[in-house]
Design a protein that fits this description.
- The protein has a 10-stranded mixed beta sheet with strand order 9-8-7-6-5-3-4-2-1-10, sandwiched between helices.
- The protein has 12 helices and 10 strands.
- A hairpin with a 5-residue loop joins β1 and β2.
- The chain has about 350 residues and is an alpha/beta fold.
- It holds the Pfam family Abhydrolase_1.
């Protein structure tokens, strides 16, 4: 296998500020605008991160977008990072939070981007708020796993995610997340050395000798648990249950990208979205994993989104095998501030 990774001394393409928006119910929503100023951007993406993760996860995609004039706005879901816990959090409530953020930023619409466990929220936003969805972009996206009809999707997940998303094993989920939080905060060097060992060979190859990517993985995980585990545990419960949204109602142009070697969220999940969303385009990237997909193809992915936006063309429903030469993307750094 050819080792393809970010260079150890990757140049940073910029910094960003993490700000806080007070929502109508008094909760705080932490967010960051990455890349070019929103008013000058050719396109703005609203990024929904995975789990356990935080807005820091958006950095590689934002780094790829900076050179294209694409801005990325990312936010921490309730209870993760700098956002307040929402005991009543649901897929629909996260959509409402995201819409409030667009209001605050005076954005009429944005490309909804969902990576991994963020895909259900991005798809739900597109289904529930079509007038504010410029396009829908799903990256290594987690599909529905509740009920007998979705049992194959649930069984295909990594063992850690199966336990964390099991509504019958909440105690096990608590133990697993306790260990992840403890390791990320108490033994970061050990975590970085072992990064990739549980992700599969494609991601292991991407992370080997790639200190920038290992540091990014550690930082977005540490931020996820910075205020405890309640937010992460609630997120898993929401994702494991009935989302209460028909993703088949999505009207926006939808691009689905997935690595053929993804061992965390296998390509079967991408096929779920391709079958459910009319006119969607599924692109399977040969030889890429869960984190290497965006790490090495972020520019290609956003370039496709930008070209479609500029041309206002129609999406294709065919499956496209992508084997383009990947381009390493630098990683951004964050500066915490108060709005």
């Amino acid at each position: 296998m050819t080792v393809r990774s970010l260079p150890p001394a990757a140049q940073l393409c910029g910094a960003y500020e993490v700000r806080s928006l007070q929502l109508g119910d008094g909760r705080s929503l932490a967010y960051a605008a990455m890349g070019p100023p929103l008013a000058q951007a050719k396109l703005v993406c609203l990024y929904h991160h995975g789990v356990p993760a935080s807005l820091v996860e958006a950095e590689p995609l934002a780094a790829a977008g900076a050179g294209l004039g694409v801005a990325v706005v990312a936010f921490d879901r309730p209870g993760m990072g700098g956002s307040t816990v929402d005991p009543a959090m649901s897929v629909a409530s996260v959509v409402a939070d995201a819409a409030a953020l667009l209001d605050h930023l005076q954005l009429a619409a944005a490309v909804q981007v969902g990576e991994s466990g963020g895909a259900p929220y991005a798809a739900a936003f597109a289904a529930l708020r079509p007038e504010r969805t410029a396009q829908l972009l799903l990256l290594a996206g987690l599909a529905a796993t509740h009920g007998r009809q979705h049992r194959p999707l649930r069984r295909s997940l990594s063992s850690m995610d199966r336990w964390c998303m099991s509504l019958r094993a909440l105690g096990a989920s608590h133990v697993i997340n306790s260990l992840v939080k403890l390791a990320a905060n108490r033994t970061p060097n050990m975590v970085k050395r072992g990064a990739g060992g549980t992700l599969g060979p494609c991601d292991a190859a991407f992370l080997r000798g790639n200190d920038a990517a290992k540091d990014w993985l550690l930082r977005f995980t540490q931020r996820a648990y910075m205020n405890g585990m309640r937010g992460v545990l609630r997120d898993y419960r929401v994702l494991a249950g009935d989302w209460g949204v028909d993703v088949g109602a999505v009207q926006a142009r939808t691009a689905i990208w997935h690595g053929s070697g993804d061992r965390i969220v296998p390509p079967l999940h991408a096929e779920y979205y391709a079958d459910a969303i009319p006119g969607s385009q599924l692109r399977l990237v040969e030889g890429e994993g869960h984190v290497s997909l965006v790490g090495l193809h972020g520019g290609e992915i956003l370039g496709d989104v930008l070209r479609w936006a500029e041309a206002r063309g129609q999406p294709s429903a065919e499956v496209v095998e992508v084997a383009a030469e990947p381009v390493a993307q630098p990683v951004l750094r964050a500066i915490e501030v108060c709005a």
